Each structure stands twice: as structure tokens, then as C-alpha cells.
């Protein structure tokens, strides 16, 4: 069991939940009020929804051996567009559609740079990460735009027994899981991540697949941006989605998806996103100054990464050579 | 121009080794951007504007030097901005506690180097991606800042203040700060190390092809760990220069600076795949970013967020050019 790729992330999550319960015995209680569920765990789900959604898009990008640093900026742009449109008297539905269209365009742009021009993903998306936030500032003219629209409020703060935000994120997660694991699509994505050239020679249209995952990541970032801005009823071009790309990448990595591409685990991403959000909540609830949260994040990330590192399992393995044979195929060393 | 002249020019161009082309391209862009300023504004031509590019970006130059080492091996260091912030914080808090300035500087440099060394060790011995390890390093360093203090701490130490405000007069009332000299010294040392020492040559070899370097018997492990220690040291030193520039320590100093640094290094012609690039290029890259900022402040009516958009556009242009050049060479 210790060899299962989700063992350490799940263990981390359980430890965090136990710590929370120790400090706050009512943490695990869930109440039903006015047809809405409330409680510590529900709060984690609700606040973690944008990170989870972005992490789902990021998982596919990372599976193709890419990375998307621009998602935070794209989220800020989505919020900026939607709020500006609503503030100027527009309809909330049109505003959201408009914002998502722009996000798809931004995803197309990232995908174009990576798949057609062949620019390294980290740099290609760094362009939009830098310029995108500037663009969001341009849209809001440097102001924080506040809106008050009942429909817009639903996407981030609304409830349908459970928070709507987490329902959206989970259904996207399930849809992606069904689509990629139920068909050959997931295998094709992994084959592109393992060796783009060989996949192309084998008849896989790598370019289309890579391009598509960036568009999908852009779309996820857009929806997450709408959730973030709707939750606070405002668009803050400077701070909306700040560092969320890092959280999403961490969630993906904690979940056991390798940054070297070639394999991914959506269940791992779900656990990873929950670990990140639970960690945040835990730090708040045990009374550590919120600013120190970054130290905890760093410790958890390093711990989980070290425990998952093939070198560590080699160290374990050499001591227990008599144990069951490794079921996982040995790692191909990145040369 | 007659045919003979054209041929002579072409000969001369071809004599310039291909590998210098990206740096030359960066320099041309620098001249063009600076030229735009010269044409548009009367005061842009004053030598002080040019010198101020170095004065205002001394810390960025030092950070870019460290990042160049890391990127040359094909790695990346996302922690530089946070380590710089931690350095300002350690300097400010130890000085406030009454440490002698020299001890405080040593503490800062030791902390930065140790952090870099630790990250390098994790990257090398546990085979974890540099991106993730240095990201964790960034979180750790930022978090430590806030553990020291959430507030900004101002630096009142007389020695620090005099170092910060002291200027060296060049001709015509053009003045330099000591930070600039330190930054230039770092650049010279880096050029020496990269081109004239075994360590430096191994850095290029590891970036070119790590397995070949290892098969040649080069100490790849030592170098892979070493570059992160170098980058940590440079981040700490850059942080010290930044604390001289701001005369305060604050956990929110230098937020997002790692991206500016990476942008400067890439604009300077260093390939992120490793093995290709020069410290000089990174310095010119920093100067390009600095000039863009100066231009926007001269313009006055343009808001500061245009800087980000311009930097993004420049980065894009450079990456596409590099891509085309690599493709033609291949």
C-alpha cells in the first residue's frame, strides 16, 4: 500500500484533517441550514474550488510535458472582463460568456506559441503571465471594480446544497476523467508527453493535442477567475488569482503527476488540491500567523516530493529487498 | 555601396561567431530602445540617465548573474526574489538588534548561500525537478520573512546609510553609487568564473549535455549543486543591494522579481535549455528592462502596468527570434 502513488498525499491530507479536529473538535461537523451544508470541510471544498479547477487543466498540460504559468493572469482577466461588463450595465450571462471566450482565445495563443512555434512552455506562458496582469489592469483601468449581480454571485458564492463552485470543479474533473480515461484520449496525451516526436511518427496528431490542452487550461482558468471574482463581488486585477498557478502546479505535483510529462493522475490532483487548501485552513485555525503559511506549504511540498522521489523509494527498496516485487514500471531516468 | 563593400561587410559579419548573435541582437535592441528615448525626450541624452540604469538596477544585475549560472545548466531558480526579500529582512532585523554591519552582511550571505546549497542538494540527490524545489524554496524564504516580522523594518545603521547614500562623482557631476560598483564587480567575477575556471566550463558542459559531461568524467553533481549555491549567494547579495536601495527590510520586497530576472536572462540570449548564453547578455537584458521602465516614467502619462505589457511583448519577440535562429541552424 505504501507503494501506491496516492499513499503519501492521502496520508498528508488525513494528518492535516486530524490536526484540525484536534484543535477544533467541531471541525468535522456538517450542518444543514436553509438547505445549504455548512462546516469546516465544506469551507475547504468551497475555497479550494478555483485551485482544483485550474489544477485539472494544469494536469493535462503537465501530462504533455508542458506547464502553464499564465493561469493566474488569465483568471484575473476573466474577472476583470466580467465585472467591467456588468458594471457598465451588461447582463451577467453575456459577461461570463464574453470572459470565457477571451480566455479560450488566450489559451489558443499559449497553445499556438507552444505547439506551432515550438517555444518552451515555461517561457511561452511566462509572456502571458507578465503581460496578462498588465492587460487585466488595462481593462479595469487600475481600479477594483465592484459589482452586485445576483446571478453573477451564484458561481462563486452560491449554494445548491453544496457550494456551486465545488460542484462545477468536481463535474469538470469527472468529465475530464471520463473523457480521457474512458477513451484513448488520455493515453494519447500521455504518449505526447512521453515522446512528442515518436507519437507524431506513430500517427498521433501531437500538435492538435498540445494545442487543445492549453485551450482547456485557459478555459479552466477563466471559470476559476469568475469564481474568485464572484466570491468577493469584485475584480481586483492585481491580486485576483495571484500565485494560484503555483498552488495549482503544487497540487498537481503532490498528486503524483510528474513534471517530466507522460503520466498523470486526476485523482491525485484532487487530493493535491485538497491538501493545499486544507493546509491553508489548518494554518488559520491553529492560530499560526497567516503570513507564515508559506513556510508550511514549502515543508509539505518538499516532504511529499521527497517521499515520492524514485531515489527515496530506492533507498527504501534496498532495505526491503525481500518485499513484494515493484508493480510500477521503473522510472526512465531523464537524460 | 558597391559590390566590394557589401562583400567586405558580409565577410566581417560572418567572422562574428554565431554564438554571439543573440547577445548582439539584445544589444541592438537596447540601442534602439534607448535611441527612442533620445529622439523623444531632450533630457534622455544626459549621461546620468545611462548611469542611472546601472544604479537603479544594480540588484537586478546581481540576481541575473546568479540566474544565468543556473539557466546555463538547464535548471531554473524561482526563489531569487524571495531570497532577496529574506536578505533585506535579515539585514534590517539584525542591524536593528545591534549587530555590527559586517556580521550582519556575513549572516545574510551565509543564509542565502545555504538556502541555495540545500535546494541544489535536493535537486541533485533526490532527482526532484528544479522548478518544484525552487518554488518550495521561494515559499520557504517568503514565509521566513514574515516569521521575522510582518511589518517593514527600516535600516538606521549609520554605516549602511552612508554606504547607501554615498556617491562617487564621475566627470560632469555624473554620480555612481557603491552598489553599482559591487554589481559590476560581481559581473566581472562571474565572467572570469564561467570562462576561465573548471567550474565555469563544466557549467556549460552540463547544460550542453549532462550525460556527455558525466561520461567525460566531469564533476556534474558538484556543478549542478554549485550553481544553486551561486544563485543563492547572488540572491543574498542582490538582496543586500536592494536593502541599500530601499533602506528597509520587508517581506513584500521584490515580489515577482524572479520573473523579471528570468525575462532579463532570456532577453539576454541565454537559452533555457542550457549550454548557451553569456553573463554579458543578461546584463544587457537587465539594461533593456531598465530602459523600458525609464521610458515609461519619462512618458509620464502611461500607467505603470504598461511596463509589464512591454516586457511581455519584448520577451515574446526575443523568444520567437531565438526560435527561428535555432531552427535555421539546425
Structural commentary:
The complex is a heterodimer of chains A (about 325) and B (about 325). With about 325 residues, chain A is mainly alpha-helical. Chain A has a single domain (about 35-310), classed as ABC transporter involved in vitamin B12 uptake, BtuC, CATH 1.10.3470. Chain A is about 70% helix and about 5% strand. Chain A has helices at about 5-25, 40-65, 70-85, 90-115, 120-140, 150-155, 165-180, 185-195, 195-200, 205-230, 245-255, 265-285, 295-310, 310-320, and strands spanning about 30-35, 35-40, 145, 160, 160-165, 235. In chain A, strands 1-2 form a two-stranded antiparallel ribbon. In chain A, α4 runs antiparallel to α5 (about 120-140). The longest helix of chain A is centred in the middle third of the chain and has 27 residues, at about 205-230. The radius of gyration of chain A is 20 Å and the shape is globular. Residues about 320-335 of chain A have low confidence and may be disordered. In chain B, β2 (about 165-170) and β3 (about 175) form a beta hairpin. Chain B has helices at about 5-15, 20-40, 45-55, 60-70, 80-95, 100-125, 130-150, 160-165, 180-195, 200-210, 210-215, 220-245, 255-265, 280-300, 305-330, and strands at about 155, 165-170, 175, 250. Chain B has a two-stranded antiparallel sheet. Chain B has a two-stranded antiparallel ribbon with strand order 2-3. Chain B has about 325 residues and is mainly alpha-helical. Chain B has a single domain (about 20-330), classed as ABC transporter involved in vitamin B12 uptake, BtuC. The interface between A and B is large, with 48 and 46 residues.
Summarize it:
Chain A has 335 residues and is mainly alpha-helical.
Amino acid at each position: 500500500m505504501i507503494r501506491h502513488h496516492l499513499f503519501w498525499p492521502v496520508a498528508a491530507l488525513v494528518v492535516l484533517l486530524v490536526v484540525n479536529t484536534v484543535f477544533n473538535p467541531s471541525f468535522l461537523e456538517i450542518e444543514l441550514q436553509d438547505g445549504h451544508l455548512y462546516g469546516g470541510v465544506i469551507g475547504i471544498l468551497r475555497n479550494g474550488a478555483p485551485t482544483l479547477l485550474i489544477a485539472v487543466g494544469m494536469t493535462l498540460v503537465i501530462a504533455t510535458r508542458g506547464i502553464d504559468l499564465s493561469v493566474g493572469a488569465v483568471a484575473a482577466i476573466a474577472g476583470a472582463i466580467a465585472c467591467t461588463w456588468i458594471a457598465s450595465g451588461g447582463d451577467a450571462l453575456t459577461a461570463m460568456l464574453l470572459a470565457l471566450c477571451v480566455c479560450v482565445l488566450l489559451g489558443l495563443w499559449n497553445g499556438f506559441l507552444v505547439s506551432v512555434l515550438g517555444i518552451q512552455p515555461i517561457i511561452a506562458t511566462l509572456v502571458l503571465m507578465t503581460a496578462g496582469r498588465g492587460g487585466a489592469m488595462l481593462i479595469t483601468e487600475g481600479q477594483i471594480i465592484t459589482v452586485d449581480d445576483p446571478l453573477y454571485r451564484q458561481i462563486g458564492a452560491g449554494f445548491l446544497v453544496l457550494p456551486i463552485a465545488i460542484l462545477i470543479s468536481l463535474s469538470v474533473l469527472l468529465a475530464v476523467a471520463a473523457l480521457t480515461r474512458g477513451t484513448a484520449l488520455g493515453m494519447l496525451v500521455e504518449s505526447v508527453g512521453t515522446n512528442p516526436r515518436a507519437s507524431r511518427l506513430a500517427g498521433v496528431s501531437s500538435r492538435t493535442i498540445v494545442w487543445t490542452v492549453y485551450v482547456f487550461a485557459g478555459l479552466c482558468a477563466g471559470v476559476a477567475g469568475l469564481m474568485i471574482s464572484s466570491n468577493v463581488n469584485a475584480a481586483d486585477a492585481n491580486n485576483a488569482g495571484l500565485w494560484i498557478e503555483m498552488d495549482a502546479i503544487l497540487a498537481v505535483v503532490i498528486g503524483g503527476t510528474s513534471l517530466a510529462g507522460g503520466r498523470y493522475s486526476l485523482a491525485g490532483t484532487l487530493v493535491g488540491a485538497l491538501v493545499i487548501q486544507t493546509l491553508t485552513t489548518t494554518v488559520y485555525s491553529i492560530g499560526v500567523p497567516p503570513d507564515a503559511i508559506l513556510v508550511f506549504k514549502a515543508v509539505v511540498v518538499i516532504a511529499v516530493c521527497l517521499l515520492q522521489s524514485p531515489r527515496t523509494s530506492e533507498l527504501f527498496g534496498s532495505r526491503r529487498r525481500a518485499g513484494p516485487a515493484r508493480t510500477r514500471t521503473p522510472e526512465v531516468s531523464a537524460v | 555601396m558597391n559590390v566590394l563593400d557589401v562583400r567586405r561587410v558580409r565577410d566581417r559579419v560572418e567572422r562574428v561567431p554565431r554564438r554571439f548573435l543573440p547577445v548582439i541582437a539584445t544589444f541592438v535592441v537596447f540601442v534602439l530602445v534607448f535611441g527612442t528615448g533620445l529622439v523623444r525626450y531632450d533630457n534622455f541624452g544626459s549621461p546620468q540617465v545611462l548611469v542611472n540604469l546601472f544604479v537603479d538596477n544594480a540588484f537586478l544585475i546581481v540576481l541575473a548573474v546568479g540566474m544565468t549560472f543556473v539557466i546555463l545548466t538547464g535548471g531554473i531558480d524561482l526563489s531569487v526574489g524571495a531570497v532577496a526579500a529574506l536578505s533585506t529582512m535579515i539585514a534590517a532585523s539584525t542591524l536593528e538588534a545591534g549587530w555590527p554591519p559586517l556580521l550582519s552582511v556575513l549572516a545574510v550571505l551565509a543564509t542565502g548561500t545555504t538556502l541555495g546549497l540545500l535546494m541544489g542538494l535536493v535537486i541533485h540527490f533526490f532527482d526532484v525537478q528544479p522548478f518544484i524545489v525552487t518554488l518550495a524554496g521561494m515559499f520557504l524564504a517568503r514565509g521566513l520573512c514574515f516569521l521575522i516580522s510582518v511589518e517593514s523594518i527600516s535600516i538606521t545603521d549609520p554605516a549602511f546609510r552612508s554606504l547607501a547614500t554615498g556617491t562617487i562623482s564621475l566627470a560632469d557631476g555624473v554620480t555612481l553609487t557603491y552598489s553599482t560598483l559591487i554589481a559590476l564587480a560581481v559581473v566581472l567575477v562571474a565572467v572570469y568564473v564561467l570562462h576561465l575556471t573548471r567550474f565555469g566550463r563544466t557549467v556549460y558542459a552540463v547544460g550542453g549535455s549532462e550525460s556527455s559531461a558525466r561520461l567525460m568524467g566531469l564533476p556534474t553533481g558538484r556543478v549542478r549543486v554549485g550553481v544553486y549555491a551561486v544563485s543563492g549567494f547572488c540572491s543574498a547579495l542582490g538582496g543586500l543591494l536592494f536593502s541599500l536601495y530601499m533602506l528597509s527590510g520587508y517581506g513584500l520586497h521584490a515580489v515577482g522579481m524572479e520573473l523579471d530576472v528570468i525575462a532579463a536572462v532570456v532577453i539576454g540570449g541565454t537559452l533555457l535549455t542550457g549550454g548557451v548564453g553569456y553573463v554579458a547578455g543578461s546584463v544587457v537584458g537587465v539594461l533593456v528592462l531598465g530602459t523600458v521602465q525609464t521610458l515609461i516614467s519619462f512618458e509620464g502619462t502611461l500607467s505603470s502596468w504598461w511596463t509589464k505589457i512591454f516586457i511581455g511583448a519584448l520577451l515574446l519577440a526575443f523568444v520567437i527570434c531565438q526560435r527561428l535562429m535555432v531552427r535555421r541552424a539546425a
